[in-house]
Amino acid sequence: MARDAAFHFYYPENLELLELNGAELVYFSPLAGETLPQGAQGLYIGGGFPEEFADVLSGQEQVTRSLREAIRQGLPVLAECGGFMYLTEAIEDTRGGTYPMLGVLPGRVTMQTKLAALGYREVRGQQGNPLLPDGETARGHEFHYSIYRCDEPAPPAYETKGLRGTKPEGCLQGRITAGYTHLHFASNPAMAGRWLQLCAESAITVD
Fold first, then answer.
1. Could you tell me the CA-to-CA distances from 166 to 71, 114, 129 in Å, in that order?
2. 3-class secondary structure for the chain?
3. Please, how many CA atoms are within 13 Å of residue 143, restricted to the half-sphere of its CB?
4. Which residues are catalytic?
5. How distant is the alpha carbon of residue 106 from its chain centre?
C-alpha cells in the first residue's frame, strides 16, 4: 500500500476488512523513493494529492520502473482517485505544467481550479470488475478537482450514481481496477475477500 503525503486517504474500515480477510498490509512511500515492497502480491494506491507533489513523483525514476514492471507483469492493482491519477500518462497542473506519471493507463488528468466532483456515490460494477461483478453494487464517494481525458480509454470499472445522474467511471485494464471513486468496503464486505483472492491467484510476487 502506498502511504505518504501524496497518497494517504483510505477508509479505516477498508484496511480492517482486508486484515480480517488475512491480508498483511505493508506500506511504502513513492514520494520518499521507496520501491514496491519485496513479496508484494497486490498493490493498493489510495487517494490524496499527487498533483501537489507531481514534480517529485515524476522524478522518482527507480520507483516508476519498479511499479511499471510489476504492473505490466500482471500485479493486481486497486487505485482510487489520487492513485488513479498516478497510473495515467501525466498530470497537467493549473499553470499548464505537465508531469509524466506511471503511464500504465492511457490518457492524462488535467487539474482545474473548481471542483470536478463531490458527493456520495452508489457504485455498480461493470463486466470484468474483480471486486464488483457485473451488476453488483457498493457505496463510496468522489472528491476531486481534476478531469480525466483519454481519446481511447480502457473499459469503465464502474457505473456511478449521484445527485447529478449516472455515468461510467474509472478504468479496467488487465489486473488494474482504477477510478476516482473511493470505495467503502463495508458497504459490500465481499469486495475485500475478492480483492485478496485476486492477489493470491496472481503468479506475480515482487522480488
1. 30, 21, 18
2. CECCCCEEECCHHHHHHHHHCCCCCCCECCCCCCCCCCCCCCEEECEECHHHHHHHHHHCHHHHHHHHHHHHCCCCEEEECHHHHHHCCEEECCCCCEEECCCCCCCEEEECCCCCEEEEEEEEECCCCCCCCCCCEEEEEEEECEEEECCCCCCCCEEEEECCEEEEECEEECCEEEECCEEEHHHCCHHHHHHHHHHHHCCCCCC
3. 11
4. 81
5. 14
Distance CA 61, CA 41 (A): 22
Greatest pairwise CA separation for the chain in angstroms: 45
At residue 205, the pLDDT reads 65
Q: How many CB atoms lie within 10 A of CB 124?
A: 18
Q: Name 163's Cβ contacts closer than 8 Å, sequence gap at least 6.
A: 119
**CA-CA distance, 72 to 47, in Å (whole number)?**
22
Average pLDDT, the chain: 93
pLDDT 10s digits, 172-201: 999 999 999 999 999 999 999 999 999 998
Cα distance between residue 139 and residue 152, in whole Å: 27
Task: State how far the Cα of 167 lies from the Cα of 113, in Å rounded to an integer.
Answer: 22
Question: CA angle, 48 as apex, 162 and 74 as ends, to 5°?
Answer: 90
Alpha-carbon distance of 135 to 129, in angstroms, equals 10
pTM above 0.90, yes or no: yes
